[in-house]
Structure prediction request, 518 residues.
Amino acid sequence: MQSALNTIQNWGETEGLSLNPRKTILVPFTRRRKLELRAPILNGTQLTFSNEVKYLGVTLDHKLTWNNHLDKTISKAIVAIWRCRKLVGKTWGLKPKMVYWIYQTVIKPIITYASLVWWPKTKQTTAQTKLNKVQRLICLGITGAMSTCPTTALETLLNMPPLHISVKKEAINSAHRLFQTGKFKAGDLSGHLRILEEIKLENASKPRDHITAMLDLEIPFEVIIDDRQSWEKKEVPKADNASLWYTDGSKLTEGAGLGVSGPNIKISKSLGKYPNIFQAEVLAIDICAEECINQGLQRKHIFILSDSQAALKALKAFKCDSKLVWECKQTLKRLTTKNQVTLMWLPGHRGIEGNEEADRLAKKGAQTPYYGPEPYCGLMKTHITEDLNRWEKEQLLSHWRRAPGLRQAKKFITTSRKRAEQLLDMNRSDIRTAVGLLTGHCPVKYHLKAIGITEDDQCRFCSNATKTAEHLLCECPTQLCKRLKYLEGVQPTPQEVGQLPPKNIALYGRSLRLFETN
Prediction:
């Protein structure tokens, strides 16, 4: 180390630079308890040892336990949360959807930053507990629920995986992005990169469409993308030497397909289950150009009309990081050597004969069984994203099932992205009522007695049973008409209530004046 510092110091002197030893931190990374080291000297000053250093926003302690980094990150996130909470109350303030957006775009990235290097810390129960406290604050801020409401129930209702799962998800995503560079080998998957071995995604080992970004400033073909209003008065190009071709891609449950319709030719091709609609559209243009070359077209003005703006913009761009798009560009360039080529966007499903024919051919290709090795072409980033979202959903469901207690909540609540979105679209008063009834943590006498506020737990409507949220939602004989009106049944089961739109549950609770009187 001393030799290296001497080399740096000598180089700095020759370049007219000076080094400040007071801004130099020396951290010996080791787990040894007894360490006898002599600190090196820089510019005549002996450096002092430190137990931690902050580098690019990550706090590295000398044992790499990540305790200090986790504590500082959580403190920073909590400060941000409480600043936002000043704008939110139980029944007033920002809309729940806006609070959720602030959390996802501002606060959560603070926690998941650099998760690739410190994700092993989330395996520890103490770390998970600390992270849960952060997410609990925001869940209460979104829903306005009672302070006794369990965090796991709120997370499941809002479709928000626990933070330790989110940290792992970001770590997996970063690891795959680094692995795509091709600079890693199978033997390198150790340390924090071993997450790729521990959590294997379905499409992780399949070939990728991504390539190192390349710059191509020569685009010999023309790309025209008009707006829809222009097409109201515009006609399909017509000229003596014009050759019109229509392309389309399709993605159905059976798989993907493409269609090409041109002069005296119709092509329908199956692409298997992996390509997405963007890839099908680009492949359709590529095959169309190849067919024009094979037909030996010369001195023609070839129009290739597609209803995919995304595909045309990708072919028009100077920067390219997709192998499929790059190959399509090269095919189009070969076609332009003897012809004038124009790619043109046209609105789909407007009754244009050629476009309708290409669409029919593409759907036919998608429905045709595919024979051959899959995937047909390299997978895009969206495939890994879908795998990650599927893994995250499975982890949330597993976490919900393994959570102890939650007797009533587990009867009414299931993981559902759709119902979470419906909850977030409600106002603060209604979301508080719906969450309280579904979890059982609301001003009903059973719960108020459990937390020591009242001594009586009998239902004030029927006086024959314990007043629980489940009793009001499913059983109370005095509320049959209201349940029929709002809950679509006289005595619905908890599973049936859980499948209803949350707005119905909130309206039912409002009709009972639940948060006004006990």
About this structure: The mean pLDDT is 89. The two ends are 72 Å apart (CA to CA).
